[in-house]
Design goal:
With about 60 residues, the protein is mainly α. The chain is about 80% helix and about 0% strand. Keywords: Membrane, Transmembrane, Transmembrane helix.
């Protein structure tokens, strides 16, 4: 069994990824909840917001790191 070596990850990258995950994951889970509640428009808006935040995350990671 092998483990991933995380000693090479800088603190800035770790904090950036953590902050974006704190935003992205709840958006998708709330979207799923809204779909189960029958609120398709709200669910689609939350998924769109999650995708938008993910794209911003990709841009930030590309330019800053």
């Amino acid at each position: 069994m092998t483990y991933v070596d995380t000693s090479n990850i800088s603190a800035e990258v770790f904090v950036t990824v953590l902050l974006f995950l704190i935003i992205i994951a709840p958006l998708f889970s709330l979207a799923i909840l809204r779909f189960f509640q029958g609120k398709k428009k709200a669910g689609l808006l939350l998924i769109a917001a999650g995708v938008a935040v993910y794209l911003v995350f990709q841009i930030v990671m590309k330019f800053l790191f």
